[in-house]
């Protein structure tokens, strides 16, 4: 056996390679359906039409998200940024297996075919979910193309992440996954739904903001325009601090205006504490990929706390 064979990564099965391409292990995006369910009045939580709508819409988001990340991997493979950002030296903190194009587990043609198939599946599910939904407020219908179109054109098509749109797309493509279904099954906009949709969007953003510090050189080389590449590093760190503080500010504001009970701030205190730890780890210690993982933990912890808080608050 040659040295090359010894160092070569083990081959993935085709189904596993597609699962990695779709980033199915990152289920955070799909937890929003449970948050929406707990925001509903008790009489709607067991309504069959509501439950079916939430399930079908969630399947739609899985398809749209799978398409978006597949197209993103194709772009990152073609421009070479993923080769730099997922260097084997970072394997301990960044799983190269998540990029099956890099080691030849999938071809670009296969990845694109999967992306388009996932997109068609996602659009079909979203369309069915919208048709069977109990309500169809105009604002929810207007936001649907923003969510689907913005997500899949993140780094493909219009390549929004290459033209100063990365952070906006990340917030919208996760926050709207809560706000739109809430509108379709509840019919009205509420302060609770606005707050929690914003929080979900910020929680997603506060993962990638740290990744972008690590990926800065590769993203600059590929021409990606985001806050990390266009701002000087000290200024970018101030932006991360400001966005982190905005999370707490949004909760305080919602409590102050009566959109949520006053004790919501206490209920979400563990997330705020973990956010402070993330700031210290990423900005003071410079361990940005560790801070990125802490952001994912904060997201999941936040969802659990929202579920509990909603069940107590919405009766």
Which keywords apply here?
16 helices; 315 residues; disordered N terminus
Task: Describe what this molecule looks like in 3D.
- The protein is mainly α and 315 residues long.
- Helices cover 72% and strands 0% of the residues.
- The protein contains 16 helices and no strands.
- The protein has helices at residues 3-7, 14-21, 32-39, 42-45, 48-79, 81-85, 108-132, 138-152, 166-186, 191-214, 216-222, 227-230, 233-256, 264-267, 269-284, 288-313.
- The longest helix is centred in the N-terminal third of the chain and has 32 residues, at 48-79.
- The termini are far apart.
Helix-strand blueprint:
Layout: H1 3-7, H2 14-21, H3 32-39, H4 42-45, H5 48-79, H6 81-85, H7 108-132, H8 138-152, H9 166-186, H10 191-214, H11 216-222, H12 227-230, H13 233-256, H14 264-267, H15 269-284, H16 288-313
Summarize, please.
With 315 residues, the protein is mainly alpha-helical. The protein has helices at 3-7, 14-21, 32-39, 42-45, 48-79, 81-85, 108-132, 138-152, 166-186, 191-214, 216-222, 227-230, 233-256, 264-267, 269-284, 288-313.
Helix content: over 70%
Query: What pattern of helices and strands is seen along the backbone?
Result: HHHHHHHHHHHHHHHH
Q: What is the structural class? A: mainly alpha
Mean pLDDT: 92
Described by its quaternary structure, the protein is: single chain
Q: Assign an overall shape.
A: globular
SS elements, strand count: 0
Q: Determine the number of helices (DSSP H or I, runs of at least 4 residues).
A: 16
Instruction: State which percent range the strand residues make up.
Output: under 5%
Distance linking N and C termini: 66 Å
């Amino acid at each position: 056996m040659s040295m090359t064979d010894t160092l070569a990564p083990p081959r993935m099965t085709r189904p596993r390679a597609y699962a990695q391409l779709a980033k199915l292990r990152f289920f955070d995006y799909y937890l929003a359906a449970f948050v929406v369910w707990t925001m509903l009045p008790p009489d709607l939580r067991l309504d069959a039409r509501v439950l079916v709508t939430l399930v079908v819409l969630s399947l739609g988001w899985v398809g749209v998200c799978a398409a978006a990340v597949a197209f993103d991997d194709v772009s990152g493979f073609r421009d070479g940024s993923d080769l730099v950002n997922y260097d084997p030296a970072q394997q301990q903190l960044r799983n190269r297996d998540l990029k099956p194009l890099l080691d030849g587990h999938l071809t670009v043609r296969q990845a694109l075919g999967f992306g388009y198939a996932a997109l068609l599946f996602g659009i079909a599910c979203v369309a069915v979910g919208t048709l069977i939904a109990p309500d169809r407020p105009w604002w929810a219908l207007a936001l649907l193309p923003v969510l689907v179109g913005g997500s899949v054109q993140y780094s493909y098509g219009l390549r929004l992440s290459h033209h100063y749109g990365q952070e906006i797309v990340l917030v919208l493509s996760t926050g709207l996954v809560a706000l739109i279904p809430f509108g379709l099954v509840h019919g009205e906009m509420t302060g609770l739904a606005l707050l929690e949709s914003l929080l979900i969007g910020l929680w997603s953003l506060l993962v990638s903001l740290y990744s972008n510090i690590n990926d800065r050189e590769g993203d600059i080389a590929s021409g990606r325009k985001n806050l990390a590449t266009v701002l000087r590093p000290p200024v970018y760190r101030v932006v991360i601090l400001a966005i982190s503080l905005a999370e707490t500010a949004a909760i305080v504001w919602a409590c102050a205006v009566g959109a949520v009970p006053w004790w919501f701030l206490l209920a979400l205190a563990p997330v705020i504490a973990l956010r402070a730890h993330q700031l210290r780890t990423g900005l003071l210690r410079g361990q940005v990929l560790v801070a990125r993982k802490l952001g994912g933990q904060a997201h999941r912890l936040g969802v659990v706390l929202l579920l509990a808080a909603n069940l107590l608050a919405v009766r």
